[in-house]
């Protein structure tokens, strides 16, 4: 049985572009934190667990580790992470592929935690235009608000 191919064929994932990336914890277990439901009309907030704080710290270091990769916006949810990364290669300098960035990020986090916590694959979407970018940016920024409608939400846990 072959796995479904998620990457665009013949696309160079190190080229200048904006990328929406999502990756999940093993079994979509909520080990990165929980969503704090606030007063009506207030935006819910993700409260990170110690593992979630390790994840957030590693994400914030992406531009330091990869100078050609900018972290535009992100959110660490209880069982997944969304990133909006921008690759900029001035003067044709080489940049890592998005696959390499995510693989090393997940590996570094698992090493710090002391065990693997991620599903093997990740989802990516090459952003195509300003409207696509704005829609994804808003989706990431307000992802906690959608959590209450997620099948994984459990107010008793």
Layout: helices, strands, pairs:
Elements: E1 17-24, E2 33-36, E3 45-48, H1 50-60, H2 62-65, E4 69-76, E5 80-87, H3 98-113, E6 123-126, H4 130-141, H5 143-146
Antiparallel strand pairs: 1-5, 1-6, 2-3, 4-5
Helix pairs in contact: 1-3
Report on the structure:
- The chain has 5 helices and 6 strands; from the N terminus they run E-E-E-H-H-E-E-H-E-H-H.
- It has helices at residues 50-60, 62-65, 98-113, 130-141, 143-146; strands at residues 17-24, 33-36, 45-48, 69-76, 80-87, 123-126.
- A 4-stranded antiparallel beta sheet has the order 4-5-1-6. The protein has a two-stranded antiparallel sheet with strand order 2-3.
- Helix 1 (50-60) packs antiparallel against helix 3 (98-113).
- The model is unreliable at 1-5 (pLDDT under 50).
